[in-house]
Amino acid sequence: MGAKGRKKSITKKLKKGASEFSPSSVSKDKAADFLPLEGGPARKLPDTEVRESKATILYIGRIPHGFYENEMEGFFKQFGTIKRLRLARNKKTGKSKHFGFIEFESPEVAKVVADTMHNYLLFEHLLQVRLIPPEHVHPRLSNLMTISNIVAGSRIKREVFLN
């Protein structure tokens, strides 16, 4: 058998194989495994509920030197009403630990602030702003807030006293 004969036999096998997989010869069970090529009916995905976040407390990290309570209150007041503002400080020296927490009146404002201010360049520092879910906030919010969240890739648990 020459080169032409081999070529003929290969084309016959290809044509025979293609006819075995034509849509008319495939049963409906096997056809259901494939997605329709045209805009035919597709599977319906289950409805997912969009959960509204009730978080009103923000973690703010990498706060630059010189940006303290008064400056923070003046800056974040432009977004909405601030309920509480707490900058973490060293107990002995009173120096800033460069992170803090802000609680807003409404969750919508807190979400807007988190989206807008995350990675905001302020005095050559990129602010890290995260919404804290309500399940991570201690029940006695007025006196003590325990927050367990992921910041900079490590799990951190902080206790911060709010006034």
TrEMBL record:
Cellular localisation: Nucleus, Nucleolus
Comp. bias intervals (Basic residues): 1-16
GO CC entries: nucleolus
An MF annotation (GO) of this entry: RNA binding
Alphabetized Pfam families for the sequence: RRM_1
Keyword RNA-binding (UniProt): yes
InterPro entries named among the record's database cross-references: Nucleotide-bd_a/b_plait_sf, RBD_domain_sf, RRM_dom
Domain spans labelled RRM: 56-134
Keywords of this entry: Nucleus, RNA-binding
Stored SUPFAM superfamilies: RNA-binding domain, RBD (SSF54928)
Disordered, as annotated region: 1-45
PANTHER family: MKI67 FHA DOMAIN-INTERACTING NUCLEOLAR PHOSPHOPROTEIN
Protein name: RRM domain-containing protein
